[in-house]
Specification:
The complex is a heterotrimer of chains A (86), B (250) and C (184).
Chain A (H helix, E strand, L loop, with lengths): L1 H7 L19 H18 L6 H11 L2 H13 L9
Helix pairs in contact in A: 2-3
Chain B lengths: L27 H34 L16 H30 L6 E8 L2 E10 L5 E6 L21 E4 L3 E8 L4 E5 L4 E5 L5 E6 L4 E6 L12 E7 L1 H10 L1
Parallel strand pairs in B: 1-5, 4-10
Antiparallel strand pairs in B: 1-2, 2-3, 5-8, 6-7, 9-10
Chain C lengths: L18 H4 L4 H10 L10 H4 L2 H4 L5 H14 L9 H12 L12 H25 L10 H14 L27
Classes of the chains: A mainly alpha (86), B alpha+beta (250), C mainly alpha (184).
Protein backbone atom coordinates (compact mmCIF):
# COMPACT_ATOMS: atom_id res chain seq x y z
CA UNK A 1 0.00 0.00 0.00
CA UNK A 2 2.86 2.35 0.58
CA UNK A 3 3.60 1.92 -3.06
CA UNK A 4 0.20 3.41 -3.79
CA UNK A 5 0.67 6.48 -1.70
CA UNK A 6 3.99 7.37 -3.14
CA UNK A 7 2.79 7.25 -6.65
CA UNK A 8 -0.46 9.04 -6.26
CA UNK A 9 0.82 12.07 -4.44
CA UNK A 10 2.17 13.33 -7.72
CA UNK A 11 -1.07 14.45 -9.25
CA UNK A 12 -0.01 14.81 -12.84
CA UNK A 13 2.31 12.00 -13.38
CA UNK A 14 3.07 11.34 -16.98
CA UNK A 15 2.24 7.79 -17.40
CA UNK A 16 3.63 6.91 -20.74
CA UNK A 17 4.09 10.17 -22.48
CA UNK A 18 3.80 10.74 -26.11
CA UNK A 19 5.72 8.54 -28.46
CA UNK A 20 5.93 10.04 -31.89
CA UNK A 21 6.16 6.64 -33.45
CA UNK A 22 2.62 5.85 -32.36
CA UNK A 23 0.57 9.00 -32.57
CA UNK A 24 -2.73 7.49 -33.59
CA UNK A 25 -5.39 5.44 -32.03
CA UNK A 26 -3.84 2.05 -32.54
CA UNK A 27 -1.45 1.43 -29.70
CA UNK A 28 -0.91 -2.28 -30.18
CA UNK A 29 2.55 -1.90 -31.60
CA UNK A 30 3.37 0.67 -28.94
CA UNK A 31 2.69 -1.85 -26.22
CA UNK A 32 4.62 -4.56 -28.06
CA UNK A 33 7.55 -2.27 -28.74
CA UNK A 34 7.89 -1.23 -25.12
CA UNK A 35 7.80 -4.79 -23.92
CA UNK A 36 10.41 -5.84 -26.41
CA UNK A 37 12.60 -2.82 -25.71
CA UNK A 38 12.47 -3.41 -22.00
CA UNK A 39 13.56 -6.99 -22.27
CA UNK A 40 16.23 -6.26 -24.80
CA UNK A 41 17.45 -3.51 -22.55
CA UNK A 42 17.63 -5.82 -19.58
CA UNK A 43 19.43 -8.49 -21.53
CA UNK A 44 21.90 -5.99 -22.84
CA UNK A 45 22.49 -3.86 -19.80
CA UNK A 46 21.40 -5.87 -16.83
CA UNK A 47 18.38 -5.58 -14.60
CA UNK A 48 19.50 -2.62 -12.58
CA UNK A 49 20.06 -0.28 -15.43
CA UNK A 50 17.88 2.68 -14.58
CA UNK A 51 16.73 3.87 -18.02
CA UNK A 52 15.26 0.44 -18.70
CA UNK A 53 12.71 1.27 -16.07
CA UNK A 54 11.07 3.74 -18.41
CA UNK A 55 10.18 0.96 -20.81
CA UNK A 56 8.93 -1.06 -17.93
CA UNK A 57 6.56 1.66 -16.75
CA UNK A 58 5.40 2.23 -20.29
CA UNK A 59 4.49 -1.31 -21.00
CA UNK A 60 3.02 -1.82 -17.59
CA UNK A 61 0.50 0.91 -18.19
CA UNK A 62 -0.10 0.22 -21.83
CA UNK A 63 -0.40 -3.53 -22.07
CA UNK A 64 -3.10 -5.73 -20.70
CA UNK A 65 -1.94 -7.99 -17.95
CA UNK A 66 -3.07 -11.02 -19.88
CA UNK A 67 -0.86 -10.10 -22.82
CA UNK A 68 2.21 -9.53 -20.70
CA UNK A 69 1.59 -12.76 -18.85
CA UNK A 70 1.32 -14.63 -22.11
CA UNK A 71 4.53 -13.11 -23.42
CA UNK A 72 6.31 -13.88 -20.18
CA UNK A 73 5.24 -17.49 -20.55
CA UNK A 74 6.43 -17.52 -24.09
CA UNK A 75 9.78 -16.15 -23.10
CA UNK A 76 10.13 -18.73 -20.40
CA UNK A 77 9.26 -21.49 -22.78
CA UNK A 78 11.54 -20.10 -25.42
CA UNK A 79 8.65 -19.42 -27.77
CA UNK A 80 8.85 -15.67 -27.89
CA UNK A 81 8.46 -14.56 -31.50
CA UNK A 82 11.40 -12.22 -31.51
CA UNK A 83 15.06 -12.64 -30.78
CA UNK A 84 15.65 -10.57 -27.72
CA UNK A 85 19.37 -10.73 -27.69
CA UNK A 86 19.95 -8.81 -30.87
CA UNK B 1 -52.75 -7.73 -20.54
CA UNK B 2 -53.95 -4.88 -22.68
CA UNK B 3 -50.91 -2.84 -21.91
CA UNK B 4 -49.45 -2.64 -25.34
CA UNK B 5 -50.58 0.92 -25.56
CA UNK B 6 -48.80 1.87 -22.37
CA UNK B 7 -45.50 0.24 -23.09
CA UNK B 8 -43.64 3.36 -24.00
CA UNK B 9 -40.05 2.81 -24.91
CA UNK B 10 -37.44 4.22 -22.63
CA UNK B 11 -34.47 5.02 -24.78
CA UNK B 12 -31.77 3.77 -22.52
CA UNK B 13 -28.99 5.68 -24.15
CA UNK B 14 -30.28 8.95 -22.87
CA UNK B 15 -31.35 8.92 -19.29
CA UNK B 16 -34.21 11.10 -20.42
CA UNK B 17 -37.36 9.34 -21.48
CA UNK B 18 -37.98 10.14 -25.15
CA UNK B 19 -34.84 12.24 -25.22
CA UNK B 20 -34.04 13.43 -28.70
CA UNK B 21 -31.02 15.61 -28.21
CA UNK B 22 -27.62 14.81 -26.77
CA UNK B 23 -26.97 14.09 -23.14
CA UNK B 24 -25.38 16.87 -21.17
CA UNK B 25 -21.75 17.01 -21.99
CA UNK B 26 -19.09 16.30 -19.46
CA UNK B 27 -15.97 16.66 -21.47
CA UNK B 28 -14.62 19.31 -23.80
CA UNK B 29 -14.75 17.01 -26.78
CA UNK B 30 -18.43 16.42 -26.26
CA UNK B 31 -19.07 20.13 -26.05
CA UNK B 32 -17.19 20.54 -29.32
CA UNK B 33 -19.18 17.74 -30.91
CA UNK B 34 -22.45 19.35 -29.90
CA UNK B 35 -21.28 22.63 -31.34
CA UNK B 36 -20.32 20.95 -34.61
CA UNK B 37 -23.70 19.29 -34.71
CA UNK B 38 -25.47 22.59 -34.33
CA UNK B 39 -23.25 24.16 -36.96
CA UNK B 40 -24.05 21.49 -39.52
CA UNK B 41 -27.71 21.62 -38.58
CA UNK B 42 -27.74 25.21 -39.77
CA UNK B 43 -26.69 24.15 -43.26
CA UNK B 44 -29.12 21.28 -43.17
CA UNK B 45 -31.98 23.60 -42.35
CA UNK B 46 -31.10 25.81 -45.30
CA UNK B 47 -30.99 22.84 -47.62
CA UNK B 48 -34.20 21.45 -46.22
CA UNK B 49 -36.17 24.62 -46.75
CA UNK B 50 -34.65 25.29 -50.14
CA UNK B 51 -35.34 21.86 -51.52
CA UNK B 52 -38.79 21.69 -49.98
CA UNK B 53 -39.70 25.02 -51.53
CA UNK B 54 -38.53 23.91 -54.96
CA UNK B 55 -40.38 20.65 -54.74
CA UNK B 56 -43.62 22.20 -53.60
CA UNK B 57 -43.45 24.86 -56.30
CA UNK B 58 -42.92 22.27 -58.96
CA UNK B 59 -45.76 20.15 -57.71
CA UNK B 60 -48.12 23.07 -57.46
CA UNK B 61 -47.26 24.79 -60.73
CA UNK B 62 -46.73 21.88 -63.04
CA UNK B 63 -49.59 19.62 -62.16
CA UNK B 64 -51.09 18.19 -65.30
CA UNK B 65 -54.27 20.19 -65.30
CA UNK B 66 -52.38 23.45 -65.00
CA UNK B 67 -49.59 22.69 -67.44
CA UNK B 68 -50.77 19.95 -69.71
CA UNK B 69 -48.18 20.39 -72.44
CA UNK B 70 -45.02 18.69 -71.38
CA UNK B 71 -41.71 19.60 -72.90
CA UNK B 72 -40.22 16.41 -74.16
CA UNK B 73 -37.13 17.90 -75.70
CA UNK B 74 -35.27 19.56 -72.83
CA UNK B 75 -31.80 18.05 -72.84
CA UNK B 76 -29.31 20.59 -71.58
CA UNK B 77 -29.17 23.54 -69.29
CA UNK B 78 -25.55 24.27 -68.65
CA UNK B 79 -25.98 27.22 -66.33
CA UNK B 80 -28.38 25.55 -63.97
CA UNK B 81 -26.34 22.39 -63.96
CA UNK B 82 -23.30 24.36 -62.98
CA UNK B 83 -25.23 26.03 -60.19
CA UNK B 84 -26.58 22.89 -58.71
CA UNK B 85 -23.21 21.20 -58.79
CA UNK B 86 -21.13 24.02 -57.38
CA UNK B 87 -23.54 25.01 -54.62
CA UNK B 88 -23.54 21.65 -52.84
CA UNK B 89 -19.80 21.45 -53.23
CA UNK B 90 -19.48 24.82 -51.52
CA UNK B 91 -21.83 23.79 -48.76
CA UNK B 92 -19.82 20.65 -48.21
CA UNK B 93 -16.62 22.63 -47.97
CA UNK B 94 -18.23 24.88 -45.38
CA UNK B 95 -19.28 21.84 -43.41
CA UNK B 96 -15.89 20.22 -43.78
CA UNK B 97 -13.88 23.02 -42.21
CA UNK B 98 -15.13 22.78 -38.64
CA UNK B 99 -15.52 19.04 -38.97
CA UNK B 100 -11.92 18.38 -39.89
CA UNK B 101 -10.74 20.85 -37.35
CA UNK B 102 -12.54 18.97 -34.60
CA UNK B 103 -11.46 15.62 -35.95
CA UNK B 104 -7.79 16.49 -35.80
CA UNK B 105 -8.18 18.18 -32.46
CA UNK B 106 -9.73 15.08 -31.00
CA UNK B 107 -6.99 12.96 -32.43
CA UNK B 108 -4.36 15.06 -30.78
CA UNK B 109 -2.54 13.19 -28.11
CA UNK B 110 -2.46 14.68 -24.68
CA UNK B 111 -0.10 13.48 -22.03
CA UNK B 112 -2.43 11.48 -19.93
CA UNK B 113 -2.12 11.32 -16.21
CA UNK B 114 -3.99 8.14 -15.78
CA UNK B 115 -4.55 5.07 -17.85
CA UNK B 116 -7.55 2.82 -17.60
CA UNK B 117 -7.47 -0.39 -19.43
CA UNK B 118 -10.84 -1.65 -20.70
CA UNK B 119 -11.40 -5.10 -22.04
CA UNK B 120 -14.70 -6.18 -23.50
CA UNK B 121 -15.98 -9.67 -23.06
CA UNK B 122 -19.19 -11.41 -23.84
CA UNK B 123 -21.10 -9.88 -22.05
CA UNK B 124 -19.38 -7.62 -19.56
CA UNK B 125 -16.53 -5.17 -19.36
CA UNK B 126 -13.43 -5.64 -17.31
CA UNK B 127 -11.27 -2.78 -16.16
CA UNK B 128 -7.69 -2.50 -14.95
CA UNK B 129 -5.86 0.42 -13.51
CA UNK B 130 -2.30 -0.55 -14.37
CA UNK B 131 -0.65 2.46 -12.78
CA UNK B 132 -1.50 1.41 -9.31
CA UNK B 133 -0.44 -1.77 -7.73
CA UNK B 134 0.38 -2.71 -4.23
CA UNK B 135 3.60 -4.36 -3.28
CA UNK B 136 2.44 -7.85 -4.14
CA UNK B 137 2.26 -7.02 -7.79
CA UNK B 138 -1.49 -7.21 -7.63
CA UNK B 139 -3.27 -4.91 -9.91
CA UNK B 140 -6.47 -3.07 -9.49
CA UNK B 141 -8.88 -4.84 -11.74
CA UNK B 142 -12.53 -5.71 -11.67
CA UNK B 143 -15.37 -6.81 -13.85
CA UNK B 144 -18.48 -4.82 -14.45
CA UNK B 145 -21.73 -6.66 -14.99
CA UNK B 146 -25.22 -5.37 -15.59
CA UNK B 147 -27.44 -5.35 -12.56
CA UNK B 148 -30.38 -7.57 -13.51
CA UNK B 149 -33.85 -6.16 -13.17
CA UNK B 150 -34.73 -8.30 -10.22
CA UNK B 151 -31.83 -6.90 -8.22
CA UNK B 152 -32.49 -3.28 -8.96
CA UNK B 153 -33.26 -0.90 -6.19
CA UNK B 154 -36.22 1.30 -6.63
CA UNK B 155 -35.32 4.26 -8.79
CA UNK B 156 -32.27 2.78 -10.41
CA UNK B 157 -31.96 3.00 -14.17
CA UNK B 158 -32.99 -0.28 -15.68
CA UNK B 159 -30.49 -1.86 -18.10
CA UNK B 160 -27.94 0.79 -17.26
CA UNK B 161 -26.75 0.03 -13.77
CA UNK B 162 -23.65 -2.03 -13.14
CA UNK B 163 -22.20 -3.53 -10.05
CA UNK B 164 -18.72 -2.01 -10.30
CA UNK B 165 -18.41 1.38 -11.83
CA UNK B 166 -15.36 2.95 -13.37
CA UNK B 167 -14.22 5.57 -10.93
CA UNK B 168 -12.19 8.41 -12.31
CA UNK B 169 -11.03 11.72 -10.96
CA UNK B 170 -12.46 14.78 -12.58
CA UNK B 171 -10.33 17.28 -14.44
CA UNK B 172 -7.64 14.72 -15.13
CA UNK B 173 -6.51 13.55 -18.50
CA UNK B 174 -7.49 9.95 -18.63
CA UNK B 175 -6.46 7.56 -21.32
CA UNK B 176 -8.60 4.55 -22.06
CA UNK B 177 -6.92 1.65 -23.75
CA UNK B 178 -9.65 -0.48 -25.15
CA UNK B 179 -9.40 -4.03 -26.29
CA UNK B 180 -11.46 -7.13 -26.35
CA UNK B 181 -11.21 -10.65 -25.13
CA UNK B 182 -13.36 -12.37 -27.67
CA UNK B 183 -15.50 -10.58 -30.23
CA UNK B 184 -15.78 -6.98 -31.31
CA UNK B 185 -17.42 -4.66 -28.85
CA UNK B 186 -17.56 -0.90 -28.73
CA UNK B 187 -17.02 1.28 -25.73
CA UNK B 188 -19.37 4.21 -25.82
CA UNK B 189 -20.32 6.88 -23.37
CA UNK B 190 -22.32 9.65 -25.05
CA UNK B 191 -22.05 12.18 -22.27
CA UNK B 192 -18.28 12.11 -22.57
CA UNK B 193 -18.32 11.99 -26.33
CA UNK B 194 -16.36 8.78 -26.57
CA UNK B 195 -17.05 5.78 -28.68
CA UNK B 196 -14.29 3.42 -29.53
CA UNK B 197 -14.40 -0.05 -30.96
CA UNK B 198 -12.84 -2.88 -29.04
CA UNK B 199 -11.11 -5.46 -31.21
CA UNK B 200 -9.44 -8.61 -30.02
CA UNK B 201 -5.72 -8.29 -30.51
CA UNK B 202 -5.73 -4.55 -30.87
CA UNK B 203 -5.34 -1.72 -28.41
CA UNK B 204 -7.26 1.42 -29.17
CA UNK B 205 -6.44 4.56 -27.30
CA UNK B 206 -8.88 7.29 -26.51
CA UNK B 207 -8.42 10.18 -24.16
CA UNK B 208 -10.92 12.04 -22.08
CA UNK B 209 -10.99 14.91 -19.65
CA UNK B 210 -14.05 14.91 -17.45
CA UNK B 211 -15.34 18.35 -16.54
CA UNK B 212 -17.65 17.66 -13.70
CA UNK B 213 -18.58 15.18 -11.09
CA UNK B 214 -21.38 12.78 -11.74
CA UNK B 215 -22.26 9.46 -13.27
CA UNK B 216 -22.23 8.87 -16.98
CA UNK B 217 -23.92 5.98 -18.63
CA UNK B 218 -23.26 4.29 -21.89
CA UNK B 219 -23.77 0.99 -23.64
CA UNK B 220 -21.87 -1.43 -25.78
CA UNK B 221 -22.15 -0.25 -29.36
CA UNK B 222 -21.14 -3.15 -31.53
CA UNK B 223 -23.25 -6.25 -31.80
CA UNK B 224 -21.54 -8.99 -29.91
CA UNK B 225 -24.05 -11.69 -29.27
CA UNK B 226 -27.28 -12.24 -27.50
CA UNK B 227 -26.63 -9.99 -24.53
CA UNK B 228 -25.20 -7.13 -26.49
CA UNK B 229 -27.86 -4.86 -25.05
CA UNK B 230 -26.94 -5.85 -21.53
CA UNK B 231 -23.39 -4.56 -21.33
CA UNK B 232 -23.67 -1.07 -20.00
CA UNK B 233 -20.86 1.20 -19.00
CA UNK B 234 -20.97 3.50 -16.03
CA UNK B 235 -18.23 6.00 -15.49
CA UNK B 236 -18.36 7.88 -12.26
CA UNK B 237 -16.24 10.92 -11.81
CA UNK B 238 -15.35 12.16 -8.36
CA UNK B 239 -12.97 14.71 -6.99
CA UNK B 240 -9.31 13.87 -6.77
CA UNK B 241 -9.22 13.45 -3.02
CA UNK B 242 -12.09 11.05 -3.05
CA UNK B 243 -10.43 9.18 -5.86
CA UNK B 244 -7.24 8.73 -3.88
CA UNK B 245 -9.28 7.62 -0.94
CA UNK B 246 -11.05 5.07 -3.08
CA UNK B 247 -7.75 3.81 -4.40
CA UNK B 248 -6.49 3.23 -0.95
CA UNK B 249 -9.48 1.14 -0.14
CA UNK B 250 -8.78 -1.26 -2.99
CA UNK C 1 -59.99 2.78 -95.37
CA UNK C 2 -58.51 6.16 -95.01
CA UNK C 3 -56.22 5.80 -97.93
CA UNK C 4 -58.99 5.19 -100.33
CA UNK C 5 -61.08 8.25 -99.47
CA UNK C 6 -60.09 11.19 -101.52
CA UNK C 7 -58.16 13.81 -99.62
CA UNK C 8 -59.49 17.27 -99.88
CA UNK C 9 -57.33 19.94 -101.27
CA UNK C 10 -56.40 22.71 -98.83
CA UNK C 11 -59.16 25.27 -99.25
CA UNK C 12 -58.82 28.95 -98.41
CA UNK C 13 -60.02 29.72 -94.92
CA UNK C 14 -62.92 31.87 -96.12
CA UNK C 15 -64.53 28.94 -97.84
CA UNK C 16 -64.10 26.43 -95.05
CA UNK C 17 -66.53 27.45 -92.36
CA UNK C 18 -68.71 24.53 -91.46
CA UNK C 19 -68.52 20.78 -91.53
CA UNK C 20 -71.03 20.47 -94.30
CA UNK C 21 -69.27 22.91 -96.62
CA UNK C 22 -66.39 20.59 -97.38
CA UNK C 23 -68.68 17.85 -98.51
CA UNK C 24 -70.10 20.13 -101.21
CA UNK C 25 -67.06 19.82 -103.47
CA UNK C 26 -67.72 17.42 -106.26
CA UNK C 27 -65.53 14.37 -106.61
CA UNK C 28 -64.19 15.66 -109.92
CA UNK C 29 -63.03 18.91 -108.44
CA UNK C 30 -61.28 17.09 -105.62
CA UNK C 31 -59.47 14.79 -108.00
CA UNK C 32 -58.29 17.66 -110.13
CA UNK C 33 -56.88 19.55 -107.21
CA UNK C 34 -55.09 16.55 -105.81
CA UNK C 35 -53.49 15.85 -109.16
CA UNK C 36 -52.07 19.34 -109.38
CA UNK C 37 -50.27 19.39 -106.06
CA UNK C 38 -48.83 15.99 -105.45
CA UNK C 39 -45.45 17.25 -104.31
CA UNK C 40 -46.28 18.51 -100.86
CA UNK C 41 -48.34 16.40 -98.52
CA UNK C 42 -50.43 19.27 -97.34
CA UNK C 43 -53.87 17.86 -97.78
CA UNK C 44 -56.56 18.82 -95.35
CA UNK C 45 -58.12 15.88 -93.63
CA UNK C 46 -61.80 15.55 -94.19
CA UNK C 47 -64.24 16.62 -91.56
CA UNK C 48 -66.09 13.35 -91.38
CA UNK C 49 -62.80 11.71 -90.51
CA UNK C 50 -62.27 14.12 -87.72
CA UNK C 51 -65.77 14.57 -86.49
CA UNK C 52 -66.26 13.67 -82.87
CA UNK C 53 -62.75 12.40 -82.57
CA UNK C 54 -62.98 12.74 -78.82
CA UNK C 55 -65.78 10.28 -78.55
CA UNK C 56 -64.54 7.89 -81.20
CA UNK C 57 -60.88 7.66 -80.37
CA UNK C 58 -61.04 4.92 -77.77
CA UNK C 59 -63.17 2.78 -79.98
CA UNK C 60 -60.97 3.08 -83.06
CA UNK C 61 -58.70 0.13 -83.78
CA UNK C 62 -55.00 0.88 -83.24
CA UNK C 63 -54.15 0.77 -86.92
CA UNK C 64 -56.76 3.36 -87.66
CA UNK C 65 -55.54 5.51 -84.79
CA UNK C 66 -52.01 5.26 -86.12
CA UNK C 67 -53.05 6.17 -89.63
CA UNK C 68 -55.03 9.16 -88.51
CA UNK C 69 -52.19 10.39 -86.38
CA UNK C 70 -49.71 9.98 -89.24
CA UNK C 71 -51.98 11.99 -91.49
CA UNK C 72 -52.32 14.74 -88.91
CA UNK C 73 -48.60 14.81 -88.34
CA UNK C 74 -47.98 15.24 -92.00
CA UNK C 75 -50.48 18.07 -91.99
CA UNK C 76 -48.64 19.75 -89.14
CA UNK C 77 -45.48 19.98 -91.15
CA UNK C 78 -46.73 23.14 -92.83
CA UNK C 79 -47.38 26.48 -91.25
CA UNK C 80 -49.95 25.80 -88.66
CA UNK C 81 -52.05 28.74 -89.60
CA UNK C 82 -53.08 26.74 -92.65
CA UNK C 83 -54.68 24.03 -90.59
CA UNK C 84 -58.43 23.91 -90.28
CA UNK C 85 -59.95 24.44 -86.90
CA UNK C 86 -61.07 20.82 -86.80
CA UNK C 87 -57.56 19.62 -87.51
CA UNK C 88 -56.09 21.81 -84.83
CA UNK C 89 -58.56 20.60 -82.28
CA UNK C 90 -58.12 17.01 -83.30
CA UNK C 91 -54.33 17.22 -83.24
CA UNK C 92 -54.36 18.78 -79.81
CA UNK C 93 -56.78 16.26 -78.46
CA UNK C 94 -54.89 13.25 -79.76
CA UNK C 95 -51.58 14.55 -78.45
CA UNK C 96 -52.66 15.97 -75.09
CA UNK C 97 -56.17 14.86 -74.43
CA UNK C 98 -57.29 12.83 -71.48
CA UNK C 99 -56.95 9.37 -72.97
CA UNK C 100 -54.34 6.64 -72.68
CA UNK C 101 -51.49 7.78 -70.44
CA UNK C 102 -53.25 11.02 -69.60
CA UNK C 103 -56.55 9.44 -68.71
CA UNK C 104 -58.13 10.83 -65.62
CA UNK C 105 -58.88 8.53 -62.76
CA UNK C 106 -62.40 7.20 -62.77
CA UNK C 107 -64.71 8.88 -60.28
CA UNK C 108 -64.51 7.51 -56.80
CA UNK C 109 -60.90 6.50 -57.17
CA UNK C 110 -59.80 8.70 -54.31
CA UNK C 111 -62.31 7.24 -51.92
CA UNK C 112 -61.37 3.74 -52.96
CA UNK C 113 -57.70 4.41 -52.30
CA UNK C 114 -58.47 5.87 -48.89
CA UNK C 115 -60.69 2.97 -47.87
CA UNK C 116 -58.17 0.33 -48.87
CA UNK C 117 -55.37 2.16 -47.11
CA UNK C 118 -57.36 2.34 -43.91
CA UNK C 119 -58.12 -1.36 -44.25
CA UNK C 120 -54.40 -2.07 -44.55
CA UNK C 121 -53.65 -0.01 -41.46
CA UNK C 122 -56.37 -1.77 -39.50
CA UNK C 123 -55.07 -5.16 -40.58
CA UNK C 124 -51.54 -4.26 -39.50
CA UNK C 125 -52.83 -2.93 -36.21
CA UNK C 126 -54.78 -6.11 -35.64
CA UNK C 127 -51.71 -8.22 -36.28
CA UNK C 128 -49.70 -6.01 -33.93
CA UNK C 129 -52.31 -6.23 -31.24
CA UNK C 130 -52.47 -9.96 -31.59
CA UNK C 131 -48.74 -10.39 -31.12
CA UNK C 132 -48.60 -7.86 -28.28
CA UNK C 133 -51.42 -9.62 -26.49
CA UNK C 134 -49.06 -12.46 -25.76
CA UNK C 135 -46.17 -10.23 -24.76
CA UNK C 136 -44.53 -10.11 -21.38
CA UNK C 137 -45.76 -7.19 -19.32
CA UNK C 138 -43.97 -3.94 -18.95
CA UNK C 139 -40.80 -3.87 -16.87
CA UNK C 140 -40.84 -3.39 -13.16
CA UNK C 141 -39.55 0.13 -13.51
CA UNK C 142 -42.27 1.61 -15.64
CA UNK C 143 -44.48 3.09 -13.00
CA UNK C 144 -44.72 6.43 -11.33
CA UNK C 145 -43.23 5.47 -7.97
CA UNK C 146 -40.15 4.00 -9.51
CA UNK C 147 -39.65 6.93 -11.80
CA UNK C 148 -39.99 9.41 -8.99
CA UNK C 149 -37.32 7.45 -7.19
CA UNK C 150 -35.25 7.72 -10.36
CA UNK C 151 -35.62 11.49 -10.20
CA UNK C 152 -34.27 11.44 -6.64
CA UNK C 153 -31.42 9.17 -7.68
CA UNK C 154 -30.49 11.50 -10.51
CA UNK C 155 -30.51 14.50 -8.22
CA UNK C 156 -28.25 12.80 -5.71
CA UNK C 157 -25.77 11.56 -8.25
CA UNK C 158 -25.85 14.67 -10.37
CA UNK C 159 -26.78 12.85 -13.51
CA UNK C 160 -27.74 15.18 -16.36
CA UNK C 161 -27.49 18.31 -14.24
CA UNK C 162 -27.55 20.83 -17.04
CA UNK C 163 -30.77 20.14 -18.81
CA UNK C 164 -32.55 17.51 -16.84
CA UNK C 165 -33.41 16.33 -13.39
CA UNK C 166 -29.93 16.31 -11.96
CA UNK C 167 -29.76 20.05 -11.66
CA UNK C 168 -31.37 22.27 -9.10
CA UNK C 169 -33.73 24.31 -11.20
CA UNK C 170 -35.38 21.60 -13.17
CA UNK C 171 -39.11 21.90 -13.19
CA UNK C 172 -40.98 19.28 -15.06
CA UNK C 173 -41.88 15.65 -14.96
CA UNK C 174 -38.33 14.41 -15.20
CA UNK C 175 -38.23 10.69 -15.68
CA UNK C 176 -41.86 10.20 -14.86
CA UNK C 177 -43.75 8.97 -17.85
CA UNK C 178 -45.97 6.18 -16.60
CA UNK C 179 -49.05 5.91 -14.49
CA UNK C 180 -49.00 4.86 -10.89
CA UNK C 181 -48.19 1.32 -9.92
CA UNK C 182 -51.20 -0.90 -10.35
CA UNK C 183 -52.56 -2.31 -7.13
CA UNK C 184 -51.29 -5.79 -6.38
Amino acid sequence: MSDDEERVTMPFKFVTGFDARFPNQNQTKHCWQNYVDYHKCILAKGEDFKPCRQFFIAYRSLCPASWTARWDDQRDAGNFPLRLDQ
Amino acid sequence: MMNFFYNLTLYCDAPQPWGLYFQDSASPQMEALIELHDNIMFYLAIILFGVAWIMISIIRNYVSNKAPISNKYLNHGTLIELIWTITPALILILIAFPSFKLLYLMDEVTDPSLTVFVEGHQWYWSYQYPDFSNGDDEELEFDSYLVPESDLEEGALRMLEVDNRVILPELTHVRFIISSGDVIHSYACPALGIKCDAYPGRLNQISVLINREGSFFGQCSEICGILHSSMPIVIESISLEKFLFWLQEQ
Amino acid sequence: MLRTTPLLRQLPATLQTSRTAAASLTPLARKQQSNQQQVRCAHAISNPTLANIEKRWEAMPPQEQADLWMALRDRMKVDWNELTLQEKKAAYWIAFGPHGPRAQAPPGEGTKIFIYTILGVVAAGALFGFTRYFARGSPRSMNKEWQEATNEYMKENKIEPISFVGGEDYKGPGAVQSGPKPKE
